[in-house]
Amino acid sequence: MSERHGAGHGLTDHELSEIRMLIEERTGIHFDESRERFLSMRVREHMHERGYGRVSELLRAVRKTNVEYDSLLERMLTQETSFFRYPAVYEAFEKRVLPEIHVSKFWKNPRTLRVWSAGCSTGEEPYSIAITIADSLSFADAWNVEILATDVGKLALKNAEKGIYSGRSLSGVNEKQLAAHFTKVENKFHVKPRLKKMISFAPMNLAAPVYVGRMDLIFCMNVLIYFTEERRRALVQRFYEALEPGGYLFLGHSESISKMPVKFQAIVLGDCILYRKPTVQEQQKAELVTEGRA
């Protein structure tokens, strides 16, 4: 590959915008100006690794086959992730949310807990959710736990389904959890079947509405940053509608929906903000209070 088009060569604005438009057209994922350097660096890395001398060659290949497109998309979206990446979130989940769900659903038959991990990447998040449920929910085995884990990246999902991890991604998992939920094979840790059977992995583009049924909890961590403001609003509205009354939405700590029109209750717990969908009674009460003030 010539130096002129090698990994050190900057891409033109036009070439970058063609790639940006292609990704946004197909996935709704938007790389704004603030992510320009990141995008340019990842495209150059990808071209270098796949042996493309020109952007036009890359675009031709990406338009021609899904394998090439998936491979480029993966490069753009893969971020380093790990188990229990935001400890404050999992603490709030364990100490506040699960006990609340336990009380509200204890007498239901069957006792079902449905969770959606939206943008699950290589699987660390849904497995962290499953570990927290298995370790913290009273009589966890008596519950029908369904975790739907979705991502637009097909290669990431393949890795997630395998459930084999090593190195830094496991740094947040303690010895007890490693022993209870993983089997060590050589230097890698395989997720045990009990956790795996709680989770269904499925490809999903969040920009294209798909019916997922009612959820008790939705985790969507560091995913909204990839969408335009308009799509973010639509997605948060969809999350609100998919949640059971009293259900919770967990977002990444740099994401906020305070300026959005949806009527979540924001609950601050330490370093974590939880968004709770009010119950019907709470909504009626709030409306009465508002009317009383008028």
Task: Note the topology.
Blueprint: H1 13-27, H2 36-50, H3 55-64, H4 66-77, H5 87-105, E1 112-118, H6 124-136, E2 144-151, H7 154-162, E3 164-165, H8 175-181, E4 182-185, E5 188-191, H9 193-196, E6 199-203, E7 215-220, H10 229-242, E8 243-251, E9 265-269, E10 272-276, H11 280-293
Parallel strand pairs: 1-2, 1-7, 2-6, 7-8
Antiparallel strand pairs: 3-5, 4-5, 8-10, 9-10
Helix pairs in contact: 3-4, 5-6
Q: What is the gyration radius calculated from CA atoms?
A: 21 Å
Based on helices, strands and strand pairing, what is the structural class? alpha/beta
Spans of 5+ residues with little confidence (pLDDT < 50)?
A: 1-9, 289-294
What is the helix fraction of residues, given as a range? 40-55%
H/E element order: HHHHHEHEHEHEEHEEHEEEH
Task: Give a written overview of the molecule.
The chain contains eleven helices and ten strands. It is α/β, with parallel strands linked by helices and 294 residues long. It has two domains: 3-77; 87-284, Rossmann fold (3-Layer(aba) Sandwich), CATH 3.40.50.150. It has a seven-stranded mixed sheet with strand order 6-2-1-7-8-10-9. Helix 3 packs across helix 4.
Comma- or semicolon-separated keywords:
294 residues, disordered N terminus, 19% strand, 3-stranded antiparallel β-sheet, 2 domains, Rossmann fold
Describe the structure concisely.
Helix 3 crosses helix 4.
